[in-house]
Write a structure and sequence with these properties.
Length: about 400
């Protein structure tokens, strides 16, 4: 066995072990439980599990898919997650050798785990925890800082500026789709329940400002509106007819040659909206952590008012993670694959008359894996078609 094959095998075995920990995250994060304490235990009888119960895949097979102590069934998802993680890590080690990509290869393995855990949780709960996505964006930037531009690499991982751009465009693209589609769902009416002090109104303002002022000044305008809200101690409404409608008019003007041109105006708008989206996500995550106990003690509000939304905000942050790790070009490949796959599955759902809610996180994860493996070839092929 040569060294390269040995490293791939070691990566696959390590992936099996990480897959076992991923199952802990999938179970505990949505429930707000500590991921380290108490140690692994059966969710049915709470009996602590021994090391023999925790061998990836083998323990599940040896126990016949049942708990050793109470004989309750263990979901098949457990060995599936372990096998997928082992396979994913092995493929990444083969396509992005550690000897060439170094820390960057490890970063791609981290991305694979984040995608798999986020998908499994989304399938169960229709949510993607901030504990995965927001630290995931930060990890993408860290790996970009330490692991980009490996000598002899067939594909250059994004450096830090490219990773920042990818994260902002990822969040901005998804949040813009959400803003526009939600406006249509509301029949172009104003939001009835905007968030204070930061939410979709400030994101939409950044979208408009970014088209004319660029990403950073556009984000500054959105955050300035947050400061105005805080100073006024109430929400100062910015009409969506002005912000969203103004953005659409700006796109038309840009396509006609006004301003900085269509491409730069769209990039500036998406990046500005993405920056404010990530600030909003971080703010509401901190707020949730600070008020979690008070909300737990308060009665549930199942009928709390809300505005219709086309997409979960967790998908926006997951797109930022993908952009931070893969860069904006492969991010676009991931989004296109996700939209096509989601549309095809939606048609199947309609034909079967099953639930009409689409969990977009798993499609984004699928698109990211496709972009990781074949994204460079797809991008180069597309550029060739355009003669670039």
């Amino acid at each position: 066995m040569n060294l390269d094959v040995f490293i791939v095998v070691c990566a696959a075995v390590f992936g099996l072990l990480v897959g076992s920990f991923s199952n802990v995250l999938i179970w505990r994060l949505p429930r707000g439980e500590n991921i380290a304490f108490p140690p692994s235990h059966c969710p049915h009888c709470d009996h602590a599990l021994s090391p023999l119960d925790l061998v990836p895949v083998a323990s599940w097979l040896a126990l016949g898919g049942k708990c050793r102590y109470c004989r309750a069934p263990i979901k098949r998802r457990y060995p599936v997650v372990e096998l997928l993680t082992g396979l994913g890590y092995g493929v990444i080690a083969a396509l992005f050798p550690l000897a060439v990509y170094g820390v960057g290869s490890v970063g791609l393995m981290v991305l694979f785990t984040l995608l798999l855990v986020a998908s499994a949780i989304d399938l169960d709960t229709y949510t993607i925890p901030d504990e995965l996505t927001l630290p995931g964006v930060a990890l993408g930037l860290v790996f970009a800082f330490f692991g980009a531009r490996a000598a002899g690499a067939e594909y250059d991982l994004p450096n830090l500026p490219e990773a920042v751009n990818g994260a902002l465009l990822g969040a901005g693209l998804l949040v813009t789709i959400d803003v526009l589609a939600s406006w249509v769902l509301r029949r172009f009416k104003e939001r009835q329940y905007p968030d204070f002090p930061i939410g979709y109104q400030q994101i939409s303002l950044a979208l408009l400002a970014g088209a004319w002022l660029g990403p950073w000044w556009g984000a500054g305008v959105g955050l300035l509106a947050v400061g105005v809200n805080l100073a006024a101690r109430h929400l100062v409404r910015v009409p969506e007819l002005l912000t969203i409608g103004g953005f659409l008019v700006s796109v038309m003007l840009g396509s006609a040659g006004y301003g900085m041109g269509l491409i730069l105006m769209v990039q500036g708008a998406l990046a500005a909206a993405g920056a404010v989206s990530l600030v909003a996500g971080l703010y509401w995550w901190i707020q949730f952590r600070l008020t979690a106990k008070a909300e737990a003690d308060a009665p549930a509000e199942d009928d709390a008012p809300y505005d219709p939304s086309a997409m979960g905000f967790g998908d926006v942050k997951l797109a930022a993670v993908i952009g931070a790790f893969l860069g904006w070009e492969r991010l676009l490949v991931a989004v296109v694959v996700a939209v096509v796959a989601g549309a095809l599955f939606g048609i199947v759902q309609l034909a079967l008359k099953s639930e009409n809610r689409v969990k977009f996180g798993p499609y984004l994860a699928l698109g990211a894996v496709v972009a990781l493996i074949w994204g460079a070839a797809i991008v180069e092929g597309y550029k060739g078609m355009l003669g670039l």
